Amino acid sequence: MAPPRGEVLQGTLDLIVLQTLHAMGPLHGYGIAQRVQQVSEDLLKLNQGTLYPALLRLEQRGWITSKWGASENNRKAKFYSLTRTGRKQLLAETKSWERMTALMTRLLSGTEGA
Amino acid sequence: MELLRIFGARLRGLFRKQRLEQDLSTELQAHLEMLVEENIRRGMNATEAGHAARREFGGVEQTKELYREQRGLPFLDTLAQDVRYGLRMLRKSPGLTAVAVLTLALGIGANTAIFSVMEAVLLRPLPFPHPEQLAMVWENVHLPHYQNDQNTPAPGNFADWKKGNTTFSGMAAIGYRSWNLTGTGEPVRIEGEAFSADIFSVLQTYPMLGHAFTAEKDRSGAAHVALLGYGLWANRFAADPNMIGRAIRLDEESYTVIGVMPQGFRFPDPDDQLYVPLALTEEQLANHDSHFLRVVGRLNPGVTLPKAQSEMEVIAQHLTSQYPNSNTGVGVRLISLQDQRAGNMRRPLLMLSGVAGLLLLMVCANVANLLLARASVRGRELAIRSVLGASRARVLRQLLVESLLLSFLGGALGLAFAFWGINVLRGYAPAEQNLAEVHLNTLVGAFNLGVSLVAGLIFGLFPAFQSARGEVVGKLKEGGRESASIGRVRARGLLVVVEMALGVIVLIGAGLLLRSFVRLEQIPLGFRPDNVLTVRVILRGPRYSGLPERTAFYRQAVQRMQSLPGVRSAGGISFLPLTMQGRTTGIAVEGQPPPAPGQVPFADFRSVSPGYFATMGILLLQGRDFSWDDAPQSPFVVIVSQTMARNFWPHGDAIGKRIKLGGVNSGAPWVTVVGIASDVHQLELIGVPRPAMYLPASQDAGTGDTLRDWVIRASGDPTTVASAVRSAVWAIDPTLPISRIQTMESVRSSYLGPQQFNLTLVALFGALALILAGAGLYGVAAYSVAQRRREIGIRVAMGAQANDVLRLVLGYGTKLAVLGLAVGSLAALVLTRLVSTLLYGVSEHDPLTFAGVAVLLASVAVIASYIPARRAMRVDPLVALRCE
User: Fold this and answer.
1) Distance CA B150, CA B340 (A)
2) In chain A, whose CA is at the least distance from the CA of B75?
3) Which of B202, B423, B436, B592 reaches 20 to 30 Å from B194, CA-CA?
4) Measured between alpha carbons, how far apart are the two ends of chain B, in Å?
5) Whether complex ipTM tops 0.90
6) Which residue in B672, B657, B737, B729 sits closest to B178, CA to CA?
7) Are B506 and B832 in contact (CB under 8 A)?
8) Coil, helix or strand for B591?
9) What is the largest CA-CA distance in chain A?
10) pLDDT tens digits for range B503-553
11) Taking CA atoms, what residue in A is nearest to B27?
12) Three-state SS string across B406-451, please?
């Protein structure tokens, strides 16, 4: 079930979604997709459909919950929100991401200098 | 924890599929619509907006598929797919499926049937509370002339063991009994036991109706009471609930029924029908000389068998120093009741299950071979699947699922075979191998499933790996037969070698058992069983309490039987040879110094009527037969066996010498040797005949014996005189039950029954093994011919003769067979050690058996590869070259 090559790495997408929900509060799938696209300024080319399996995965892990509700246009939509474990997970993943990027930055600048 | 929750969520996903599908559609639809709205807001027209939205969203169906994979358990989903597909594949090649399922059913069925016997005999807990605490207590006798580690204890030893131990919570004695039951209906002979009153608390089993014996009833001189076995109560007394308190007539005496034992109660013998108090006298309880009881005890909670054994050994040593004359060399041996039940069936059963296991491995090899052959046909299909994106694991799984389908189908059919087989086994099994309790139950079912699973994995994995390997491109090109098949031919060859080797082991086992059975059959019996009928008539009750009355009956019986048409002669004996029953006594020989403690000579003894020797064809080597003139008032006489004469009077002067039963100090009269009879295997066929003596039933030199078994020699088929013999007995006394009407030949064959039974099963397995080995080799040889058609065609075109082709194919088959024979023989050299205790008169490395099996299998191999070789010889080079 690894994502097809050339798309966003699975862990990265998870982190993005968690962060989005953390920042924006409960959102439906469309909202999340829009937000991601907006923030990434279209750098991240996301097949919006692939978002849904990720949402389900996060829900199965208990990091987010979902609830049916009405959208702005009064359309029936599923709203996702962060749970407490999700918040903790976000914190942990953010930290490990920062460590990782720091490491990568150091490594890559080293390469350049050589 | 987390994994568990994910699994739970996914599992739920499996079951609320429809609802979740709807939700998914709604959610995705909403997303798309929102995208469209957004696009319209940006100024596109409706059609454009729709297209753009779909582009942005990506494939809706792909998303759904990804979502589903995440939602459910894809493993289970695809498993269902694999099963459906597998079933379709099996249906598509019905021939292969039928052959595979049938051979698997034979293999799994054989294993299931043998296991069901093992379950009943070795594994199933005994039907008593805390059965692990129950043990039989035997005397362990080690004397220069007599060894027996399961000797029936003397009552004095039982009493002292019981008093002295601290490891048993209770100990009870059992004495064998049998009666003539008269009064209602035809007189019948029933067997049963005399129990000491403790038996109920030891077994923790009590009558289902009425009550058990009390200690007062278990005293000599107490009023006669009896407990009915369930079978007797149900059959003879129509399960009458008012039987309690009624009187029944046993041996012409009245017994009050005080209870009925529960239905499953079969202790100690399955044939027991009635139980009375043992009521040992004070005198008996002090007797350490006559050994006739069976003793069962219950260990205190937490006490192990070895611990109890060591305590009992100390007690036995005390008894030896206390009673040196009777207890020298008499130890004690505890055997758990569970082991006692398994008795001497354990080893044969383990052997049979081993052979059945080997047979199943052969079946697996054969089916694996079939699957490999099919794999070459399916190579292309598998290649297409992997090109279309099926991972190697996925293809492997598909193939394994197909194998497991085959093995479970085979297992199910095997269960039916086992059910049928158990019924057949029950009919043929000798009485001593009590198979009445054998049936299919949950444990047997679980075993069947387990074996099916393991078999499926064994025969499935090998071909699956073979097929999933190999590169795809070759297979896609032109079917890729030639290139892909070389490894497969080699794999199939390997399987056949393995199969041959297993077949060698099975056949050598069968051969060894056959050879030892033949040896057993060849042992001279010392009597001629042909044309001899035997019946049992036991005189009981006050009318026959005196020797003159009994003698009168004996004399009349012999006369009446002898004068029947078609009867040559007749006679009676106390215990028939080879029925595992008899009596032994210490003796004193006149003129020889009194023996040291533990050195008293022993001899078997039998009471007989005149005519017994002639009827049984036992030769009188010296002296005379008994006659009716050997009466109580005339001198006491004895006829001794050849071995006894040689042991006690080595100078050949036995006639006229005198001996006394029971030892120097016994009150028995001296008896004079008047004849020497040839040796007879009285108790067992194997081993040297023991010293034996015969006493006339018309005298009583201290035996207290009565005649029980009658032998009648007919001029032709002995069964034809059976009803006349019955009438002759009833003409003397119509109240006497007549039982065990059988030919002497069948007495002998039932003695060899267990061996014959084992042999029959192993021979059956051996025959199957032979067929499997032949079929396996044939399959491979035929396959290689088919594969090499083109090569053979070229060879023929280049001038090869028919003989060259024949040699080519035969050579291949023979090479495999020889390899298999070598491997199998080597393995058999090691493995036959496991069955050495089941063999008689033949070495476990018997060269004749090994050579015979080799020749047999080699001939089968030649025949199996000759048939395809013939086909190869007829290959037309033109056709062969053109066809590919």
Assistant:
1) 10
2) A1
3) B436
4) 60
5) no
6) B737
7) no
8) coil
9) 59
10) 999 999 999 999 998 888 888 888 999 999 999 998 988 888 889 999 999
11) A77
12) HHHHHHHHHHHHHHHHHHHHHHHCCCCCCCCCCCCCHHHHHHHHHH
Q: Give the mutation candidate from A10, A44, A52 for the B interface (greatest B CB count, under 10 A).
A: A52
C-alpha B840/C-alpha B686 separation (Å) is 8
Which CA distances in Å does B165 have to A97, B114, B298, B734, B820? 76, 40, 12, 50, 59
* Backbone phi and psi for residue B137, each to the nearest 5 degrees, phi listed first: -115, 120
CB of A53 within 8 Å of a chain B CB? The answer is: yes
d(CA B498, CA B721): 56
Question: Are B503 and B486 in contact, with CB atoms under 8 Å apart?
Answer: no
- Measured between CA atoms, the residue of chain B closest to residue A79 is B27
Is the Cβ of A1 closer than 8 Å to some Cβ of chain B? Answer: yes
Amino acid at position B35, single letter = L
Q: Which whole number is the average pLDDT over B721-725?
A: 93
CA angle (B785 as vertex; B780, B791 as ends), nearest 5: 140
Residues forming beta bridges with residue A76, ordered by sequence position? A70
A30 touches chain B (CB under 8 A): yes
Q: Determine the distance in angstroms separating the CA of B19 from the nearest CA of chain A, rounded to an integer.
A: 14
Contact criterion met (CB < 8 Å) for A71 and B62: no
Model-level pTM?
Answer: 0.73
Alpha-carbon distance A110 to nearest alpha carbon in chain B (angstroms): 39
Tally of residues, chain B: 884
Residue pairs spanning A and B at CB distance below 8 A: 75
Q: Write out the two tokens for B613.
A: 């020797």
Q: Which residues of A fall within a CB distance of 8 Å from B2?
A: 61-62
Partner-chain residue, chosen from A1, A71, A78, that has the shortest CB–CB distance to B70:
A1
For B143, the 3-state DSSP assignment is strand
Residue that is written with structure tokens 């005298």 in the block: B699
